[in-house]
Amino acid sequence: MKRKQKRFLQMTLLFTVALIFLPNIGLWSLYKDKHLVKSAEPGEQQTFPLGLGDGQFYSWTDGLRRKDWHDYESIQKEAMRSGKGEHGKPYPLTEEDHDDSAYRENGFNIFVSNNIALERSLPDIRHANCKHKMYLERLPNTSIIIPFHNEGWTSLLRTIHSIINRTPESLIAEIILVDDFSEREHLKDKLEEYMARFSKVRIVRTKKREGLIRTRLLGASMARGEVLTFLDSHCEVNVNWLPPLLNQIALNHKTIVCPMIDVIDHNHFGYEAQAGDAMRGAFDWEMYYKRIPIPPELQRADPSDPFESPVMAGGLFAVDRKWFWELGGYDPGLEIWGGEQYEISFKVWMCGGEMFDVPCSRVGHIYRKYVPYKVPSGTSLARNLKRVAETWMDEFAEYIYQRRPEYRHLSTGDISAQKELRKQLKCKDFKWFMAAVAWDVPKYYPPVEPPPAAWGEIRNVAANLCVDSKHGATGTELRLDICVKDGSERTWSHEQDRTLFHPVSNSCMDCNPAEKKIVMARCDPLSETQQWIFEHINMTVLEKLNHHASS
Ligand code: LR7
Ligand code: MN
């Protein structure tokens, strides 16, 4: 009897598993291979391979109709373009083009910008899977908001042209250019006249210099689209960039989405992915924005699928308009530049939303050589950061002050409204954010620096000489020298992140694996060329030393 029962149970289990997992008949098959149904022919259910650019609608078994949003006509036209800078190729620079005067006004080479087409073509560097993805047939439309302050003429125009050329018209409610009190002549009547050719472009202007945060808020307050999409004023959007962003918001409106940000070189305007391409947004405890690898736990089976990111870079994202305002928009007390990317990121995660980076959406951005515009006196990035830290970071703000003691006495101005908002939205605390969202950040940027695993001189037993790092004409080099007690030049500290830190030169032992050379370099614990593993470390001895050192 017992055996029979067991047998029966086993059979049922087997059957259930088969029902779920067997290809073609199992429940799984409903999801596998994105079972597509051509909606144009009702009744007759047929399945099709993905990525048919046949203008037909397809629906998944979830009943929602999807389509291929690519504009194949414009893709073909672009492929045929030729000329300098086309297909995102570097502009061939001569010595004179490199002159500093080309950079002075914008922080990037405006001469090069002026000499490549406003409608230049870009390389399609998306993951191959993106070329076959379909998105909801009914996507929300969007207001594209672009703040600018003294932006270069051709860099601003190229931003607009790239949007007009690479975005389905039906998805653009309007493009709002928000002038943050620019002085440059070309941004006045000339800009109004030029933009008159685009019926969807509106220009609004601040009445005084507000900074990028309140300038974005002004644009958002005038916007009528269902979604707000923010861009910097020196971008080039790439092929089919918008549908994957809007799709994610359509699936869950409490979602902020960011495109992959590509690099437009400030010298030659070559277009390429950032080093490492798809990475999570993070921060160190001086609140510098960082990018860290996607941990294996969060890597998607399809690497072109959206992935969670703890913080955004700042300038390029899309958000449901109503929800943006439910979250209170940005803190309007943030001045000129910086910190707002943390404010919105923390807020979204802690107050019931999610944030994704979307690999199938790519937008190029000119990373400047230096900041060209004036920042009004009395405003500082530090003040913005402290406002955000005091509002959102709870006891974690202390880690910032430990590194930046000067922040302790800085005035943030009144943040009571921000704190009240946090209470009203019933947001979770920062500890939750660190544990649930940014849990991998401390691996790279520990809030409390771990004590070194070993320190002092590194003595070679045979030679009885010590590793010495000397700064000479050819840079900092490594060599062997006699060991001198208290010779701080020869003092190293082996950190728990496996780097060998040399406090005197404030640099780390590094290597060039190709040339098999040991060198010194600026410390970068993320770089494996700076990680050294001691074959044996006697922890008991170390702990004793540790004890002696601290007592
Ligand atoms: O006073 C100002 N008023 C403005 O309207 C200063 C700037 N601006 C405009 C400016 O014209 C531009 O369109 O605001 C936008 C951003 O200013 P940038 O381009 O000088 O900033 P950035 O690209 O150096 O810096 C990044 O971090 C900023 C922090 O506040 C903003 O979030 C930027 O949007 C952001 N840019 C990006 O995220 C693009 C990727 C680079 C990175 C990281
Ligand atoms: Mn920018």
Automatic annotation (TrEMBL):
<keyword id="KW-0808">Transferase</keyword>
<protein>
    <recommendedName>
        <fullName>Polypeptide N-acetylgalactosaminyltransferase</fullName>
        <ecNumber>2.4.1.-</ecNumber>
    </recommendedName>
</protein>
<keyword id="KW-0812">Transmembrane</keyword>
<dbReference type="InterPro" id="IPR029044">
    <property type="entry name" value="Nucleotide-diphossugar_trans"/>
</dbReference>
<dbReference type="GO" id="GO:0030246">
    <property type="term" value="F:carbohydrate binding"/>
</dbReference>
<dbReference type="GO" id="GO:0006493">
    <property type="term" value="P:protein O-linked glycosylation"/>
</dbReference>
<keyword id="KW-0430">Lectin</keyword>
<keyword id="KW-0464">Manganese</keyword>
<dbReference type="Pfam" id="PF00535">
    <property type="entry name" value="Glycos_transf_2"/>
</dbReference>
<keyword id="KW-0333">Golgi apparatus</keyword>
<dbReference type="InterPro" id="IPR045885">
    <property type="entry name" value="GalNAc-T"/>
</dbReference>
<comment type="pathway">
    <text>Protein modification; protein glycosylation.</text>
</comment>
<dbReference type="InterPro" id="IPR001173">
    <property type="entry name" value="Glyco_trans_2-like"/>
</dbReference>
<feature type="domain" description="Glycosyltransferase 2-like">
    <location>
        <begin position="143"/>
        <end position="323"/>
    </location>
</feature>
<dbReference type="GO" id="GO:0000139">
    <property type="term" value="C:Golgi membrane"/>
</dbReference>
<dbReference type="Pfam" id="PF00652">
    <property type="entry name" value="Ricin_B_lectin"/>
</dbReference>
<comment type="similarity">
    <text>Belongs to the glycosyltransferase 2 family. GalNAc-T subfamily.</text>
</comment>
<keyword id="KW-1015">Disulfide bond</keyword>
<dbReference type="InterPro" id="IPR035992">
    <property type="entry name" value="Ricin_B-like_lectins"/>
</dbReference>
<dbReference type="InterPro" id="IPR000772">
    <property type="entry name" value="Ricin_B_lectin"/>
</dbReference>
<keyword id="KW-0735">Signal-anchor</keyword>
<dbReference type="GO" id="GO:0004653">
    <property type="term" value="F:polypeptide N-acetylgalactosaminyltransferase activity"/>
</dbReference>
<keyword id="KW-0472">Membrane</keyword>
<keyword id="KW-1133">Transmembrane helix</keyword>
<feature type="transmembrane region" description="Helical">
    <location>
        <begin position="12"/>
        <end position="31"/>
    </location>
</feature>
<keyword id="KW-0328">Glycosyltransferase</keyword>
<feature type="domain" description="Ricin B lectin">
    <location>
        <begin position="455"/>
        <end position="535"/>
    </location>
</feature>
